[in-house]
Amino acid sequence: MKILCVGEALIDMICTDKGKSLSEGDHFLKKPGGAPTNVAAAIAALGGKVELAAKVGNDPFGKQLIQVMQEFGVSTRWMLADDSYFTTFAFVSLMEDGERDFVFNRGADGQLSREEVDAIDLEDVSIIHFGSATGFLPGPLQAAYQSLLQKALQRNIFISFDPNYRHLLFPNNTRSFIDQSWNFLKACHFFKLSDEEAMLITGATTVKDAATILLERTSAVFTITLGKEGTLFGFRGSTSIIPSIPIKPVDTTGAGDAFVGAVLYQLCNRSLDAIKNLTADDWSQIIGNGNKAGARTCEYMGAMEAFKHLNNQIFQ
Fold it and tell me: What percent of the chain stands above pLDDT 90?
């Protein structure tokens, strides 16, 4: 059985001139990215069978994204290259005050259409992972997300969700992001939130209160990542903290995606009924292994570079 990840594939342009804004910076590091793209790479690195459904431009950057995924072992037959749109770019710089200067140059990723995802053969797909807030922006990808969610529900496919909230994508319309997130939170079987996302979506002022609301309003197994403190695990009316492992962090980019990829990798060869029968102890082990994958990712610079060092031996 295989996992299908759907959403954004893009190029991150990271300003390497420390403390400078995008307008002031002269040097940029080009990195393949996109949250579901990262998750797919992590799954493949661990040895899982995975496909990525995404749209890129038919340009050198889109070709690079496809090539990188193929090198990881991700099936790219649903990575579609479009002649009419350029590959999406995200420009990021870390300012001296700690704030991020961010410009999202959206292109092909938002053009993945409902008709294109409806053409995907789901016969041997055991898990579908929805993993990017860009899927909640207006456009074809938004409709594609909704259509694929309904197909997954109809076919009794395990649904995973990670909203990957970026405030700069929703500067004046956070309500839309929250409402669309609840639609997925109530439908999915597993979701992962950061502590910031958990409080934003629930309206709570503490992670503990957010977890209580999520337990009341959803039936999914869920996690709230807490950085070096580990992961809050919600399951059948109760919560617990699953600790992480001590590391010397170099770069936290992609840690959450590695965590999700590791969790899904451990579930991919189980039926939905078998997953539903997993105990709290079973899930604790799965999430603990996910914590290990996320932590190990932080030991390297850049998500894709880190994923090259992922394998299932880290679970031992």
Answer: 75
